[in-house]
From TrEMBL:
Protein name, as recorded: Tyr recombinase domain-containing protein
One term of GO molecular function: DNA binding
Alphabetic keyword roster: DNA recombination
Keyword Lipid biosynthesis: no
Signal peptide (from-to): none
GO biological process per UniProt: DNA integration; DNA recombination
Species annotation: Nocardioides zhouii
Native organism taxonomy: Bacteria, Bacillati, Actinomycetota, Actinomycetes, Propionibacteriales
């Protein structure tokens, strides 16, 4: 998801199945789009388990899904888009990666790149990232090394 869509989520936007969002940059009429999120294979990186754990802390009061935390107090104030990017950079650095390379598109590009590397067809990647134009997915979201590794030209016997 785009950062703006992520921080705009409210508790009412999330359903056990399927997960949903109110709107996105491509949903200007606010009709809503459904974004499915599957369980992860590892407990530490399972997005469904992470949301469940956060909701145990956050509680079930209406409002922003992701809120600010000051010391040990949970606020009802939604996170800002810049906070999400900063948190992602901090996690990258903690994992030993170069956090300066994390941008606003890193979440979506990372998903698209990993999916392409795993052999997921482009139309499925575009459906998940909600891109209408496959060339945008290939040219802007799938990182060049993965695009080279998954190119069909390697199968042409050249």
């Amino acid at each position: 998801m785009r950062g703006s869509g992520l921080v705009a989520l409210t508790l009412a936007d999330v359903e056990a199945k399927p997960g949903g969002i109110r709107h996105s940059k491509t949903d200007q009429e606010h009709r809503g789009q459904v974004v499915a999120v599957a369980h992860g294979t590892h407990a530490a990186t399972d997005p469904i388990a992470a949301i469940a754990a956060w909701l145990m802390i956050r509680g079930d009061q209406p409002g922003a899904l992701f809120t600010r935390v000051w010391s040990s107090r949970i606020s009802d104030q939604p996170l800002g888009n810049h906070v999400v990017a900063r948190m992602l950079r901090q996690r990258a650095v903690a994992a030993g990666l170069d956090g300066t390379r994390i941008t606003a598109h890193s979440r979506r590009a990372g998903h698209a790149t990993e999916a392409a590397g795993a052999g997921v067809p482009l139309h499925q990647i575009a459906a998940q990232t909600r891109h209408r134009d496959l060339t945008v997915v290939v040219n802007r979201y799938i990182r060049p090394l993965v695009a080279l590794a998954t190119t069909s030209s390697k199968d042409l016997g050249l």
